[in-house]
Amino acid sequence: MVLYFARLQILSCAPHSRIMHRAYTMVASAADTGADKDAPLKEDIRLLGRLLGDVLRAQEGEDMYAVVETIRQTAVRFRREADAGAAKELDGMLKILTREQTITVVRAFSYFSHLANIAEDQHHIRRRRAHLLAGSRPQQGSVSFALCKLAGAGVDEATVTRFFRQALISPVLTAHPTEVQRKSILDAEHDIARLLAERDRPLTPKEQAANLHLLRSRVATLWQTRMLRYSKLTVADEIENALSYYRITFLRELPGLYDDIEADIAAQYGGPDAPPSAIAASYVQMGSWIGGDRDGNPNVNAATMRHALARQATTILDFYLDETHTLGAELSVSTLMVRCTPALQLLADSSTDSSDHRSDEPYRRALIGIYARLASTARALGAANILRQEVGHAEPYENAAAFAADLQILIDSLNANHGAMLVQPRLSTLKRAADIFGFHLASLDMRQSSDVHERVLAELFAKAGAAPAYAELDEEAKVALLLAELGQPRLLYSPYISYSAETESELGVLRAAREIRQRYGARAVRNYIISHTETVSDLLEVLVLQQETGMLRTTDQGSALDLMVIPLFETIPDLQRAAGIMQRLMALPLVRRLVEAQGLEQEVMLGYSDSNKDGGFLTSNWELYKAELGLVQVFAQAGVKLRLFHGRGGTVGRGGGPSYEAILAQPKGTVNGQIRLTEQGEIIASKFSNAEIGRRNLELLVAATLEASLMPPAADDAQQGQLAGFEAVMAEISERAYRAYRDLVYDTPGFTDYFFAATPIAEIAELNLGSRPASRKSTRRIEDLRAIPWGFSWGQCRLLLPGWYGFGSAIGGWIGEGDGADARLVQLRAMFQHWPFFATLLSNMDMVLAKTDLAIASRYSLLVQDAALRERIFKRITAEHAATLACLERITGASERLAGNPLLARSIQNRFAYLDPLNHLQVELIKRHRSVGHEPGKVDERVHRGIHLSINGVAAGLRNTG
């Protein structure tokens, strides 16, 4: 591997020519050849590969370096030539590696995956800057592009600004058991990315040498840093990991994005010299599940919720204090030179600062007072981490709005007194941050499974003498009892009765939520998500629990509900019931009053992961589409605004894929300026560990939501009829795909045994990856396995089965043979060309198939000791794979994967050279691990560690596997 990249070491001897080449490439026009565009990427990968090779030589010796390269070359030969001899040679080579050598080889290939990801991210930034420098037209996915498209369709500025004032776009960070990045690794990689970016600037020879030295030292730091956790990750660890992305990206880039969008609107509708039009609303807000998601995680409770908000408050208040202190140094404006407003003078005079040296500097005096109030606020909220002592004592702010109001006084004074240019960037960014993040940073969602609520209510009803066997009642009786209870002024709970630990814990969590809202503001906790929602009673139960804890209050003046109750529809049957459940729920007078009190808005969450595991890729996507259409109709009839919360994962099999295309492919009427979606697992690091990449990903969400919400619908009756025809075809295809998928996964004898043997699922369950267990129950049933490790396991063995299985059987069976086959194929091609939903579905599957590798998967199949079972199931999988490829080619006309996205195709192909050896090594290590069993004293911890390292490396190489 490293020898391959070391061949171009001569590049390091010509710094001036390389600088000129990189500078030329950055400003090249979009008409440049593909080779020219990618030249800096290749150079960066070569450089990082060479540095890794240097470190490997220095740390492990020349012999180990040669072993790594020999393994890489043999793995490449195995791939390119399908050489049986190469396979045998590779197998023999891996078997004779010592435990120490194996770990070294795994680490080398794993770190190269990480370094290649850094180079790719930097190249994306470079190409974006090249477009901007060249004055290219706005790129798809930018807000500028969306505004241009909308203006061309006749959408005026008033409509656009009204959209932003009413919109809510919320990425929600979640912690999941496939997250494999350690914060120490992220920190080192962040430094490498920064140093790599420096090389795009003109550097003197000394600066070039210093940069190279620092890069080498950071790569060496990576090599000497433990990649894995040796202890189980706690919820507190997950909270800290998530907060690091706020410091890197969200705190500065999100307010900056707001400024860019205002400038884009002004440029589109008012011309290039038009001043930005201020939009006061906070239309992008961050959310989090980390510390509030209790579903299947016994480690989350009231204490973790309180800890999560305390740490979030500390993070945002630290930012406010630092920025306020810096502003105090910057705003040295004197009233001897320029006037200030009476409001600012009053704020300065009420400050804790009484120094004569600053008597003519009202902005500094005001900021000293603001700093003192922030410091007191931090102490009052339990977020005290004040590095600089404030001047004097001040009362804490009552809320973040009061803090923002003080900042607005400074802004208004500067604007009124020739200081408008001083507002940007720091003061306006701080004010915008106060509006977006408040004192809570991100809204913490609560989530629990419906069966837990049922058990808690059953105990409360029984001990209160209201219903002895609530859980045994039918649905209608449950609804009647719950509605009756919601009309009662008294509580079921008594402090004088003993309850189970589960009941006390669940009520304690809700009481903690009430305290958090009082402490940090209403936005700190505002959503309660119910997993496995199957009935109306599942939703009413949470209303009763809120009533029990003072979060639902009914008076003569009306009803007030603190937490919006949000159903999560996950499985295929749940999705099919979704519209009917919401229709019955919102028809209840009590619920209608609560929805009205919420501003006639109601959120519904759709689960992509479990529906995929339940019904397969194609059927999951179709049932989600139908559920959305049904919900749109129900909500329109009820006169309620629908907000969909998309529970998407990293893999395509879990709803992953490009967010921009996914939002645009949503059925008409399902976005309307309101969307929330999860960002999960290592996808968080991929999207937000680099500030510029993070800002671009946030802009993609806004641009897609803007375009999906405001683009006028097609009014052509013929087009509407065509869509109805497309949907009818999709219904037939989905039914066929569902049968094919279920037949393999749930109805084939021995499939569970095959899955547990031919994938590293057992080893993944042992990893110290997250605080949540990989399975909901201690069984080997597919039904009980969490969808996340299910998809993660198939990615590790390079089959990625949840992202494509069933498509070939469905399409091939529907097209059939004979006279009607050609017409049906024409219909499918029309669906691909004219229906965004179907085109996006095929595009995502195309990407999955590009990463699928049957040759590698065949190595994993050899882990199945039952030869007859192995041959029977793997043969079925390979046949379906071949059928899927054939059908995809017939529809799209592309014989090569990712023909429409050559950049991604090259990226994936370039990864195979260092990804394949990791898979081969993983198989060998799993063999060793399983051969000794799990008896005490027999497990080789170094082998165990090697497996975990390989899992990390494969995940990094595939990128979207969580």
Automatic annotation (TrEMBL):
Q: Spell out the subunit comment.
A: Homotetramer.
Q: What does this protein do?
A: Forms oxaloacetate, a four-carbon dicarboxylic acid source for the tricarboxylic acid cycle.
The EC number(s) attached to this protein equal 4.1.1.31
Q: Belongs to which family? A: Belongs to the PEPCase type 1 family.
Q: What InterPro entries does UniProt report for this protein, alphabetically?
A: PEP_COase, PEP_COase_bac/pln-type, PEP_COase_Lys_AS, PEPCASE_His_AS, Pyrv/PenolPyrv_kinase-like_dom
Pfam families from the xrefs?
PEPcase
| Lyase as UniProt keyword | yes
Which UniProt keywords are given for this protein, alphabetically ordered? Answer: Carbon dioxide fixation, Lyase, Magnesium, Pyruvate
The source's superkingdom equals: Bacteria
Q: What species does this protein belong to?
A: Pseudoduganella aquatica
Q: What is this protein called?
A: Phosphoenolpyruvate carboxylase
Q: Which reaction does it catalyse?
A: oxaloacetate + phosphate = phosphoenolpyruvate + hydrogencarbonate
Q: Which GO terms describe its cellular component?
A: cytosol
